[in-house]
Amino acid sequence: MARISILMYHQVGVFARPREHRSTYCHIRRFRAQMAYLHKAGIPVLALPEAFAILCEGRPFQGHGVVLTFDDGDSSFADFAHPVLARYGFPASVFVVSALIGQPAGWFAADGRETPAIMDAETIRALHRQAVVFGPHTLSHPRLSRVSTDQIVQEVEQSKAQLEALLGETMDFFCYPYGDYDERVIAAVKRAGFRGALSCIRGSAVPGEEDPFQLPRKAISYGDTLLGFWWKLHVKHRKKRAPLGY
After folding, report:
1. Rounded to an integer, what distance in angstroms lies between the CA atom of residue 48 and that of residue 55?
2. How far apart are CA 16 and CA 222, in angstroms?
């Protein structure tokens, strides 16, 4: 059976063991080991547009593929994750909080955590020239189901417009902050002209069975050993909605 594991990362780097929000951290040692495993095992690492064509547009595919996605767009992607990806030639998609480009990620401070900085425009452009795919993750990282419809439209449409202006190409894919959305949010994403959107529903994606606007992902957490990573890739296929407090 064909399957695609869309993996969800946030920060990659050197961290003290977090007490909370463990799924938003991946230690660089474990990230290096995970990418080495994908390379040695010969698992196809697909660009998101390629995977979308397989999942939702009928492009033929056999076996098990992987997509690498990174939420928020903080500087750890450029500093830690991208050099590892470049070593293996792995494609990746990064979803950026567009109104905070070059600024602190304020929602971390609201949670009482050390606050990373979102990559600046120059860094984003440089990575884009190296074939990193970018997409919007709203303007300000709100819980979209809890704000007004007008704010939903603003967060979705303006984040798309800002990244398109920055990179000079159409943004095809959106990513819901916290995996938090409702019917109003999906409708706004569709109206904005996106082809699809990434959720935080855990599990594998199966060609021909997915809603393009609720694509599932598997969160890679701080505590995932290489064995845990293997288990998420090869065993954890059943879909499960993640708690909003991740």
Report:
1. 10
2. 10
